[in-house]
Amino acid sequence: MAALVTQRCNGFARSLTRILVLSTPSSSSSVRAASTKHPFQGNDGSSKGSSPTGHLTMNSGSKQLSVADIKKIPDEEVKKSVFISQSNDVFTNLALEDWIYRNFDLTNHHILMLWINRPTVVIGRHQNPFAETNVSALARNGIELARRNSGGGAVYHDPGNLNCTFFMPRARYDRKYNLNLLTRAMYREYGINAELSARDDIVLLGKKISGTAAKLGQPNAYHHCTLLVNSNKLHLGASLAKDDVEITSKATASVPSPIKNLVDVNRTVNIQQLLSAIGYEFLRTPATQLTDGGRELLMKQRGFQLINPTDKWFPGISELRTNFASWDWRFGKTPAFSVQKTIQTKVGAAGESSQQSPSPYDMKVKVDVEKALIKEISLILPNHEPIPVVSDMVGKPYDEDCFHGITEALKGANTESMRHAMGL
After folding, report:
1. Domain spans in the chain, listed from the N-terminal domain onward
2. What's the rounded mean pLDDT across residues 175-180?
3. Neighbours of 266 (CB within 10 A)
4. Are strands 79-85 and 109-115 parallel, antiparallel or unpaired?
5. What local confidence, expressed as pLDDT, does residue 59 receive?
């Protein structure tokens, strides 16, 4: 039986690769597991209280059960669906996550969303982007910077990275169930023996192949994670390289870890086949037990659905995307922080340059930032009170290029007022 199902998975992966190039939800497939539906059309063709995929929505009059009642629902009454986003835009996919989280009634229906983004650095809800990456360098290299709605650390996405989002009622949230389901899929399909770390990362041969984060609300929750399949590790490292400055911040900091791609241990791994294998593992596994329901359980599920994240399918999703892509969300939500860097000035005792380091005339440039806007610029000298700097940069958005422009301007300062301020 296992061999038969594996053969079916491999066959479907090849079909799915062709299906994924479709750009509209109107296309269909002869494969039952990959289907599309007209917006807000249920399995019976009606549109009563159903989502674009046939799921009940929380505003459709469905009764909200208590936590205790949800936990009593037997696994055989919980259906599952695998959603495959047809978008590679990070802001659209974050909006789709948020739409499902806000609107779906997941009481009797659990969802796995699988999605792939163009090159992007994604930070956690409570992080400081300038402490996690070089925002100016990302912009120059055409790499997006996104802030998700969940916690956790910064990650790099590209077409060699598969993103998985598990949706369930808060009462049924089980992070280890989800992660173990992924390791089971990798072992079944490729014989890869990955494990969970103490921090609930998926590791392989001691190196991280998956990061994880969650959004826990009421009544719904989601848990999402990455899987490094064939990601460009050079671009990953460069994209998560920070500027060489001192940053003081109360924002959540990422914990760096050595990483590994799945292709490093098995060259046959490819992202579309892995996507298919994970989807099948989800569908053939009961809602709360990590047991194998096989083909019998798989055929009772709703299967794979190609998702087109548009307003036609998900009314209001464009507004959500606009919010995720906005400067106010990506940068304005940054907790207050300060940036410092030591520089040598041209101001010496008689106006000559200070060449030795450390020097009594070395100083630090400090920039205080609130809501990603420059609040104050000051100079810090040994045995001196901070010296405020009057600048038209105050009130402007902060970034690394702006900070280096400030430091370069102050390095070249050689005026009577500077020497007077320094007590020379």
Report:
1. 67-331, 337-349+359-422
2. 97
3. 14
4. parallel
5. 65
Q: Is 359:345 a contact under the CB 8 Å cutoff? A: no
Architecture of domain 67-331: 2-Layer Sandwich (3.30)
Give the residue carrying structure tokens 């020497």.
Answer: 419
Question: Of 33, 98, 84, 62, nearest to 314 (Cα)?
Answer: 98
Q: Which residues contact residue 357 at a Cβ distance below 8 angstroms, ignoring those fewer than 6 apart? A: 344
Q: What are phi and psi of 75, to 5 degrees?
A: -55, -35
- Residue 201: strand, helix, or coil: coil
CA distance 213 to 222: 9
Contact 86, 22 (CB under 8 A): yes
| Average pLDDT for the chain | 84
Cis? peptide before 39, omega within 30° of 0: no
Residue 274 has pLDDT above 90, yes or no: yes
Residue type, position 245, single letter: V
Average pLDDT over residues 361-390: 89
Vertex 379 angle, CA 373 and 380, to 5°: 120
